Amino acid sequence: MYLEEYANHIDDSSKLKGHAVQIITPSEDHLFELEEDALESILLDERVRDKKVVVVSVSGAFRKGKSFLLDFCLRYLNAEGSSDWMGLEDEPLSGFSWRGGCERDTTGILLWSNVFLSKLPNGEEIAILLLDTQGAFDSASTVKDCATIFALSTMTSSVQVYNLSQNIQENDLQHLQLFTEYGRLALEDTKERPFQKLMFLVRDWSYPYEASYGLQGGRKILEKRLTISEKQHPELQQLRKHIRACFAETSCFLMPHPGLKVATNPHFDGRLSDIADNFRENLKILIPYLLSSENLILKEVNGKKITCKELLEYFKAYVKIFQCGELPEPKTMLVATAEANNLAAVTNAKDHYCMAMEKICGGDQPYIRPTQLELHHQHLKNECEILFNYTRKMGGEEFSRQYCERLLKELDIIYLNYKRHNEGKNIFAAAKTPATLFTLVLITYFASGMFGLIGMIAFANLCNLVMGVVLLTLCLWTYIRYSGDMRDVGSQIDVLSSTIFKEILKPAYKIVSQQSLSQLISLADEPSVNNFTILANQVKQKVS
């Protein structure tokens, strides 16, 4: 009778309440949408909305057993502290969707609909949420997709489990740096460390003779991987400093392989009888380490513990940040390296151009005609394009074409600076403003005298007034050039003088010079005509 009741109790406790709910959904154009209604139905439930919250998330590469692990977390929480929380030997594992094979199963971010309640050692009742995330680095996800999912789950969780296979490798740390940096950018400046707890979970650990399974061996391996020494390359030091600066707490847990039946049986459904004993033993340590009441870590934002309803607002705000497109696009290592190669080639070509132009029209070189300078520019521009194209670069011809176009545009901008510098050496160009103003003074002076002689006093006075204004302007321009003050006013005077010269003086000079030339030609022609007439008359007289 007792055994029968005990079996019924186990059977009742093994039935999970709730189901996985999609709260972040990926779209075909690689954007992520927040399912607000679904999230609100969970976080705004009267039972939990005002309770402080613990959020445990599992992230990492796809097909590494994240959902499988979370289903054991569900069993533990569902058992409500029972020592037999792992269930019966032949009971299939249920909860978050999982399966064997090599294709991804989870997309976006899933949240378990039933919020579990637990009491802290001080007696306060809190809520526990479990997040399951889309695996990184599958064939359908971009680097931005992976970074966004990891960043969102890390920003919204109090414990982030970084699920790895076999070891903590340098590329795992590099990916972690990229993903956490993406999240840190979204959070902007914060005095606190942006994220709370990170636990490296190394699956299929094959070196127990170097570091034992569990937390102690994990601590040993993590210390080795995150150690900073003077002998390390600065890049490696910076990576480790970044990880330490991003998380308030880090830990590591080494898990053995679950056994061949788990890895190779296509019909494996999570039964404990098929899982290796040492995996089960370490699982009994790992799950309570994450979820027992004395180990729970409440979700905090800037040092303040938040409730479920407040977490909803943070979800909305964070998703909006990633949707707005203000964050820089995370890139693959290949693209980042190719960009660096091409930018270095652009810099080398620009340096070649500047060195050559300095020899042609630099600070110590004399003034050169604009047409000659233009020819030198075009010649050097072609040289730089050839130099860029012959430099060995990554990314291919199509990728490099945009950088070549960028180089040519930048060379044109640099040329304009050299052109202005060269024009500054032209003494006639520098004297254009005072010459124009002085010419206006002379014109108005003579005009005033002529109008005075013929009795047009009003026009004479007007000319005198204009002459006085021009003289004052010339004095002001001289003072500005000498002192360097009021440079904007000086520039306006130069522009005005240039306009007067182009629109009034130059056309007037052309008209006057053309009329003068015509008169000279006509005067030169008149003696010739008269001589021809005299000669003709003399011939007539002789004939007659």
Automatic annotation (TrEMBL):
Which stretch is the leader sequence? none
Q: What are the subcellular locations of this protein?
A: Endoplasmic reticulum membrane
Which family is this sequence assigned to?
Belongs to the TRAFAC class dynamin-like GTPase superfamily. GB1/RHD3 GTPase family.
| The UniProt record lists the keyword ATP-binding | no
Gene3D superfamilies named in the record: AHSP, P-loop containing nucleotide triphosphate hydrolases
Q: Which residues form the GB1/RHD3-type G domain?
A: 50-295
Q: Which organism is it from?
A: Larinioides sclopetarius
Query: What are the alphabetically sorted keywords of the record?
Result: Endoplasmic reticulum, GTP-binding, Hydrolase, Magnesium, Membrane, Nucleotide-binding, Transmembrane, Transmembrane helix
Output the InterPro entries linked to this UniProt entry. G_GB1_RHD3_dom, Guanylate-bd_C_sf, Guanylate-bd_N, P-loop_NTPase
Q: Which catalytic reaction applies to this protein? A: GTP + H2O = GDP + phosphate + H(+)
Assigned GO CC terms? endoplasmic reticulum membrane
Bilayer-crossing residues are 427-447, 453-477
**Bilayer topology term:** Multi-pass membrane protein
Q: What is this protein called?
A: GB1/RHD3-type G domain-containing protein
A matching Pfam family: GBP
Drop me one GO molecular function for this one.
Answer: GTPase activity
The primary site where this protein sits is: endoplasmic reticulum
